[in-house]
């Protein structure tokens, strides 16, 4: 049983690992010739994976391992990252930030849904775009879809463009640091509030600073936890509108295991229960797993799908993202985060 599972996963994991090693090799070349890595291995892995996926479509043999790398290895990496993060970073930014995150999510969902309806998207499609943009991308879309009874084609269109736009955000968001004169703390909050997925926050903040990575990850995890209340609220609303509605909520969907693990390790680190010797092993391991996972995420992005995504969906997702960035920047200024 275990052997069969390993044999099933091995090809895809090996492919992701090969791309990750190539990315780390290119980063080494950058450091050797330019003195610093202008593109971190995390970003290079995404780009290489995307190029490979666009030029070549892996068959079923590669799928299980790629999926395992993109999800499970990534979740393990995010969980391990908790051991290097202290909650003091959030406290330093101000307790009002926690409430601010909830307000941003609510405002962004409302604004995104309104934009979608204004552009003529069906109600369910508009809600998928709104939740995906405002909370955690594909995960939010997947969680909300069965609750609101979304059509498969609506889910596919939403996820297709969100995957591509998520990579674009990761690559371009750091440019706002010099353009807007953001501090490392401000950028960490902005990344946590706007980037779609937890691992993408790492890719968007690691090249900038450790402070941005720590704060961005914590802010993002708080934002992800907003998925629970949102799904519950939508379930209650949808339940009133549909006969024989079946409950589709589960604790594992609302609070994923790796978030629990991340928060637990962060608590232990904050209490001084994680020795530095162990941390010196955990951090490189988490970094390696993250690069492998970035390669897997890149392998899931086919730039050709842009042709099949409707113009209204494209415009709705893009405008919603811009609105989310504007709301997030307003919160940063309002709270006086320096």
UniProtKB/TrEMBL annotation:
GO CC terms: plasma membrane
Mode of membrane association: Multi-pass membrane protein
Highest taxon listed in the record's lineage: Bacteria
Organism: Microvirga tunisiensis
Pfam families linked: Cons_hypoth698
UniProt protein name: YeiH family putative sulfate export transporter
Intracellular or extracellular location(s): Cell membrane
Membrane-spanning parts: 38-56, 68-87, 93-115, 127-149, 155-177, 189-209, 221-239, 251-271, 277-301, 313-335
InterPro entries named among the record's database cross-references: UPF0324_pro
